[in-house]
Amino acid sequence: MAPPLLLLQNVSLTLGATPLLHAAELSVAPGERLCLVGRNGSGKSTLLRIAAGQQAVDSGTRFLQPGTTVRYLPQEPDLTGFDSTGAYVAAGLNPGDDPHRARSLLEALGLTGLEDPTRLSGGEARRAALARALAPAPDILLLDEPTNHLDLPAIAWLEAELAGLRAAMVLISHDRRLLERLGRAVVWLDRGATRRMERGFAEFEAWRDDVLEQEERDHHKLARKIAAEEHWLRYGVTARRKRNVRRLGNLHALRAQHRTAQGPLGIAKLEASDGETSGRIVIEATDLAKSFGERVIVRGLTTKILRGDRAALVGPNGAGKTTLLNLLTGRMAPDAGTVRLGAALQMVTLDQRRESLDAATTLADTLTGGHGDMVVVNGQSRHVMGYMKDFLFSPAQARTPVGTLSGGERGRLALAVALARPANLLVLDEPTNDLDLETLDLLQELLADYPGTVLLVSHDRDFLDRVASSVINAEGDGRWVDYAGGFSDMLAQGGRIMGAPAAEPPPARPKPAVRKEPAASAPRKLSFKDKHALAALPARMEALHADMLRLQNVLADPDLYARDAAGFARASAQLEKAAAELAAAEERWLELEMLREEVEG
User: Please, are residues 313 and 321 in contact by the beta-carbon 8 Å criterion?
Assistant: First the structure.
């Protein structure tokens, strides 16, 4: 195996009073493609900055093979100090690099190189930063959320471009489709430490769940072992003081291990506030038309959105998705045609840029509106601290200004604000931006179970497949076509994203997310033999405990060995056998007890 080009070893870092990384590792060999995954706030972006040499650490080492070139794409590119996007990209070239490649990359990403950096949208700044990272053809690419703010044609282009590179890559992304197609191994950053799986991202979630289940079993075993040690200290042999002191020290160490064992990071609890039931027809548009000057945005669109539909607007940036969204929700008047909104509509909107969030307002005041400490969710008052915990915010963050939150935290906060308001129509503009994979899973489940109607804009292909029941696709010259199903279903029906380099073969569409009920998970049932063992094992364990106590009392006789060496040997062997049987019985009881808890929900 080739030696690594980049190696991080035993990296630890504390930011403020919060330990972020602890003995984290990262190894990048030539041509490797690694997916770096973890919860929002787990330190992924920080680890990538350390790998790029832009973040100091408290301890640990960073090794880069001499002559290796590294390019880093930050999550929020900074073009300050450059007169144009072309100058920004050119500044990233090394002596001898081909300037023509920089220009061709800018053109492929829809830029001329003459754009003023102070007037760029988030998507345009991301495209310029991508061109700067890719232009030198580096040995290692470190990419932090490269698809953020990109539209579907740009994502399709980027995926094809990255697939054709020989560079090694470390990729952070919430775009499952991109991770599945590019990743060859996964580095999971969890509770400050890294674990590595030498398989593609498609197998990550099953592997992660296995790891967490094993941790839970080990935690149960540790608790049982502590209980057994405490029992021994209370009722066990009191002679041989040195051995007792050592065992007491071991117990203290076990207690400390159990106390400091950090379980997996919490799971966000997403719940939408239900509004009144709307009419059966939520939105009905007939021969809709809208133009700005000579630019036609919508031409002759007729569509109907019914209660319970999850309709997605899809198309490249500039196609007019936001305009169509405003037309369909009645916030903009059409030039021709009609839009009829259903009865009893209660609409809540999540905007793409999170502009509803005031950077200077604290997190708690954002959720409460600055009035007291209570949030009303589904008609019930909840303390803001409890509601914050549902979205993985700690009490210490309550007085934190919104402007200091990470992109993922702002995304979760915007969701928390939107979902607290009573609604029967959710209008979501790019809801997946900056969310981690676990929160995305929960958002998908929430939308699948939501009794109201959802109108959304998204460039996340996997999210569209899992959530959308229909897609309204921009097909050029103001023409929008309504397709049943998600993104892959649209492609299968002949739809195509305007400006995409080529029609990608539609993958098998994942099943829509549904809430997992205990009955549907079909856990293994307890057999009659299992039930009998579960009932009988506690008595068996007590008998073995009593047997061990008796043998320990026998062996506590200091004259036993001199008086009856054979008896001492028999008692020692019996004690060893009883201890082994007790350990096996406890293991079996723990296994059956966990199975019983699973069966009973």
Answer: yes
- pTM for the whole thing? 0.69
User: Is 355 contained in some domain?
Assistant: yes
Q: Has residue 266 been placed in a domain?
A: no
Q: How far apart are CA 77 and CA 129, in angstroms?
A: 6
Task: List CB contacts of 298: < 8 A, sequence separation 6 or more.
Answer: 288, 289, 290, 320, 323, 324, 327, 334, 478, 480
Contact 410, 429 (CB under 8 A): no
* CATH number of the domain encompassing residue 563: 1.10.287.380
Answer for the pair 392, 265: CB distance below 8 angstroms, yes or no: yes
Same domain, 425 and 476: yes
Q: What is the pLDDT of residues 11-33, one digit of tens each?
A: 999 987 678 999 999 999 999 99
- Half-sphere exposure of residue 467: CA atoms within 13 angstroms, side-chain side: 28
| Number of domains composing the chain | 3
Residues ≥6 apart with Cβ < 8 Å to 393:
363, 409, 412, 413
Q: Give the β-pairing of 425-429 and 453-457.
A: parallel
Q: Return the higher-pLDDT residue of 278 and 100.
A: 100
Q: What is the DSSP string of 436-495?
A: -HHHHHHHHHHHHH-SSEEEEE---HHHHHHH-SEEEEE-STT-EEEEESSHHHHHHTT-
Range of the domain at 565: 516-601
**Any domain includes 581:** yes
Please state the rounded mean pLDDT for residues 514-540. 63
Question: Which of 125-134, 244-253, 261-270, 430-439 has the highest average model confidence (pLDDT)?
Answer: 125-134
Instruction: Choose one of 148, 179, 206: the last residue of a domain.
Output: 206
* Domain assignment present for 213: no
Cα R_g (the chain), whole angstroms: 30
Other Cβ atoms less than 10 A from the Cβ of 461: the count is 26
Question: In 530-586, at which residue ranges do the beta strands (DSSP E only) sit?
Answer: none
For 423-436, the pLDDT digits (tens) are: 889 898 888 877 77
